[in-house]
Amino acid sequence: MTVLHRSHDRGITTLTLDSPANRNALSAALVGELGTALADCAADPGVRAVLLTHTGTTFCAGADLKSPPDPAAFVALMRAVVELPKPVVARVTGHVRAGGLGLLGACDIAVAGPDSTYAFTEALLGLAPAVISMPLLPRMDPRAAGRYYLTGERFGAAEAVRAGLLTEAADDVDAALAPVLDGLRRASPQGLAASKALVTATVVETFDRWTEDLSARSAALFASAEAKEGVTAFLERREPPWVW
């Protein structure tokens, strides 16, 4: 059963995350299918840009704790979005959590609706937003990252724009995206690839510098007793013992 659907219209390929049963969490299946779809888009001259969207009320809930992807595969997926020689635009009308923010942050343009919410929940589980920092920290306001990384607070689309996670918050997401997609259709493939390379250069350098270190940190945290307790408490819908 596929967890990703593709459609195409006038140069724009839409990739729709479709695993509502687990809130489009980053399972091994979803990461694999999305990686394959992006590679196909890169190789297809008929694709001018990619629109990444979702079914259900959640864009992406983060890592699937019951069927997690290989960590290296998830890092490779985020980097594939950043390095795709075609723009990737996120259309968000639902919630984004934890690792889902890494996928969102890797996109070139992100437009979200008023019902969307965001939270870095890792610290609440004994983890840290380690590998997702590579596409996020070069783009986020440092003070916002410091607050939301540490507190796990939930915030809305307007604050996500201020923090640097989103390009635009709009009551009508599709109306806001219309001029964006029109502009991408009017741009030349070479012009888009060269322009994207300019604006993603710092993010690519961050992947080059930090992938090994942050992947090791993430693995160590997931293997720790504290994180195992935090994840167990989350799955059992109870508070972990460190909550006062």
TrEMBL record:
CDD domains: crotonase-like (cd06558)
A Pfam family the protein falls into: ECH_1
InterPro entries: ClpP/crotonase-like_dom_sf, Enoyl-CoA_hydra/iso, Enoyl-CoA_hydra_C, Enoyl-CoA_Hydratase/Isomerase
Family indicated by similarity: Belongs to the enoyl-CoA hydratase/isomerase family.
Name of this chain's protein: Enoyl-CoA hydratase family protein
